[in-house]
Design a protein that fits this description.
CATH superfamily: Stage V sporulation protein G
Strand order of the largest sheet: 1-2-3-4
Structural class: alpha+beta
Oligomer: single chain
CATH class: Alpha Beta
Strand content: 15-25%
CATH topology: Arylsulfatase, C-terminal domain
Radius of gyration: 20 Å
Number of strands: 8
CATH architecture: 2-Layer Sandwich
Length: about 200
């Protein structure tokens, strides 16, 4: 495996533990987005993209985050013991979307991403600096075309359930549309990987 490109999006508040988001391209043909660079106790480390784990309310069956104390639909108090516990006894609230399966791969990713992060910090201090992280959305996919096809599909499927062939290119959400306000960033690298299975 070769990491052919890393793009970094620096966070503006240096006092926070979340230093940056990044994307990496593997072998020039596969992109993984939303890796996080986090300031840990022993220095910066890379956290893999993850999603919040959910379960269903025992009253109305609505999906809720495991961190929720109350159901977002009916307001029912949720059980405290519904999250699985890790080896260390801590509740598992997040699951990796993509992650390395051995330490050699994890070290390769972490070393390369942190090298690029250091370079990006230096570049950001130069006049005329522009972040390249969001360029995937601008040039590689025709989002207007994809949204048009989605609108057509929604209209036709709701009116008569006919099949509509969609374009082959995927719709990629803008990173600005993602809610990252509740992501957990207060773990050391050992806790992060130990906690996530």
């Amino acid at each position: 495996m070769e990491i052919t490109e890393v793009r970094i999006k620096l966070m503006s508040d240096n006092a926070e533990r979340l230093l940056a988001f990044c994307s990496m391209t593997i072998d020039g043909c596969f992109v993984v987005r939303d890796l996080k660079i986090i300031r840990g106790i022993k220095g910066a480390f890379v956290a893999m993209p993850s999603r919040k784990l959910t379960d269903h309310c025992h009253r109305c069956q609505t999906k809720n985050s495991l961190r929720s104390n109350y159901c977002s639909q009916c307001g029912q108090r949720q059980r405290d013991d519904r999250a699985m516990k890790g080896v260390d006894g801590r509740a598992k609230l997040y699951a990796d979307i993509a992650h390395p399966i051995n330490s050699e791969c994890r070290d390769l990713i972490q070393n390369r991403v942190l090298e690029e992060y250091d370079l990006e910090v230096i570049k950001s201090q130069q006049p005329g600096y522009m972040c390249r992280y969001d360029e995937y959305d601008a040039g590689e996919y025709d989002l207007d075309e994809a949204h048009r096809w989605d609108a057509i599909h929604d209209r036709q499927s709701s009116s008569n359930n006919r099949r509509v062939d969609l374009p082959a290119q995927p719709v990629v959400p803008s990173p600005h549309s993602l809610d990252r306000s509740t992501e957990r960033v207060d773990l050391s690298p050992d806790e992060w990987y130990g906690n996530k299975g």
